[in-house]
Amino acid sequence: MLPKVLLRMSQEDVLFVRRYHPLIEYIRNISAGNRKTIFFLSLLPVLICFMYIWYYGVNVPYWDEWDNFPLIDKVLTGNFNFSMFYDQFNEHRIVLQRVTMVILGILSSYNTKVDMYFSQITMVIMVFILFIEFKRLLGQNFMALFVPIPYLAFSLMQAVNTLYAIQAVAYYSVFFSVLTFYLISRLDYCETRGKLILQCALPIASALATSFTFTCGLMVWPVGFLQILISGIQKRLKIFMLCVWPIMGAATFLLYFSNYTHPTGSPPAMIFFKYPLQGLTYFSYLLGNILYAGRMVNLIAGIFIVLAAFLLFISIPFNKLPRYSFWIASFTYSFLAIFAIAFGRSTLDFEYLYLPIRYTTYGVVGPISLYVMYIGAVSDESSNTSIRYSKLVKCVFIVLFAVICSSIIPSYESGYSQGVFWKGHREKVAYYTYTYKMQSDENLKIVHPDPMIVRKYAPILENRKYSVFTNPYLPPLDKLTSANCTTTGFYTINAAQPNAHGQLFTIDDKQRYLSIIGWAIDDLKKDIAGGVYIKIDDKLFPALYGLDRVDVAEHLKINNYRYTGYNIEIPVSLIEKGTHKLSVLVLTNDKKHYFVPSVEVIVNRA
Fold this sequence. Notes:
Layout: H1 4-7, H2 11-20, H3 23-33, H4 35-56, H5 64-77, H6 83-86, H7 95-108, H8 112-138, H9 148-153, H10 159-162, H11 168-185, H12 193-211, H13 220-230, H14 235-256, H15 271-274, H16 276-287, H17 295-315, H18 325-349, H19 365-378, H20 390-406, H21 408-434, H22 441-444, H23 451-464, E1 481-483, E2 488-493, E3 504-507, E4 513-522, E5 527-528, E6 531-536, E7 539-542, E8 544-547, H24 550-556, E9 565-571, E10 578-587, E11 593-595, E12 601-605
Parallel strand pairs: 1-11, 3-12
Antiparallel strand pairs: 2-4, 4-5, 4-9, 6-7, 6-10, 8-9, 10-11, 10-12
Helix pairs in contact: 4-8, 5-7, 5-23, 8-11, 11-12, 11-13, 11-18, 12-14, 13-14, 13-18, 16-17, 16-18, 17-19, 17-20, 18-19, 19-20
């Protein structure tokens, strides 16, 4: 007797389910009967990613973002030319990133979190494209198996890129490559010349956008040619595109490498051939980087992806290639992009653990495409063209499915630890940027390797009220009211503790800085404070608050007090000669009140 679900199917569907019963029937039942659940589970990683940026993202330019900021100023003053967008940046020409940075920067007062959100919006569109192609390949039967794809696309293994605005180039490169292959897959011959030209122009325009995001984006041209070659588009249109595509690709390569110079500090171009084993190891490591954290497990995952891809490509019959053309192109682009990165960076990045993490995004579509092709292979209902080595393919698919699903939880664990670290780090960068006038060059090197860059462009940000200068680092004291109780805390001045009756501290030019280190909590809310001001007479100096003080949490036996530390280095040159009253003002957690200081210290500048 047929199961009830078969009574609601067409004869073709009944034969399909009978062949793979009970597994396919089970998957189909889940897909058909739990659409709301599937939609929610697919949407959840998107929501988590945007919440992740909201909580851990910090609005401050960091390192390379300072080198691109002058473009915004030049555009606003009308003192620019379009070649500035084309100028080489390290090994790359990041035209698209610069254009979006300028537009979003002007619209948002150079709020770098806006760039972070925007890069994830492109990923949302990309996942929607993947959904369309997934449904096109597999129909409604396997929608439940689509759920892991958004978790890979928005994996928090990409946390470094997610929380670093300039790394939007990685997301743009991946998005426009997928868009290019989607537009190629939608090519259809028509008699109307205008529509035909538009159809052909769109993938070419998308490929150009991909090329000018990152150097590995140039791989879109050979991969696009491969897709056109194996696709099932009409013969006349295919011949036309096979003629036009390489011409446009060659022109793009010539334009890209016109006046190109090898950047100082980068490995020699052919260094890969000198150390091929190290390069291939690095390539395998990068390929598995999206799945797990840890070099050895990444290396194993990368090797598994290579072997699984090889098995699949020798298993699919030649006449089935047009069916998989979009996914083959997406996988091949990801594969070649990672290889191009390994080719140029392998001998350098082994010395820096965090650098390879920046390349995680470029490999995100590879496992996704491989996963979808395996679903298509094991569910191929055409008995006349069934895949070779079917039993082995099904076994590898199960392993691949398990690997992808098992990588979800580690990605969130990694994302959490990276989020905590980078939020603390960027908040320090924001503080040093906001107080650049009183910071040493050593501190400003955290903001940018060249402190003079910060000193040159921070005043422009400040005058325009951009980025960290949009709002005060701490609310003005005249807008706060004094609290009725004193605060709990402790601090030292130049490594000496003030006594309860006040104390005289003498400083001179030899010391350079008046260093204050301490911790403070909100006694009203029994929570972390909202910030700390150091007051010298009538001058207020905001301190860097929120530093890790494990000792405080252990002493008070309250883990919530761990990030209650603060410090500040006030240049002696900003303190006039003579005696001054110094006090510590602690803001309440809601930043609406401040605690009256219990002790005032006398500082004498000799």
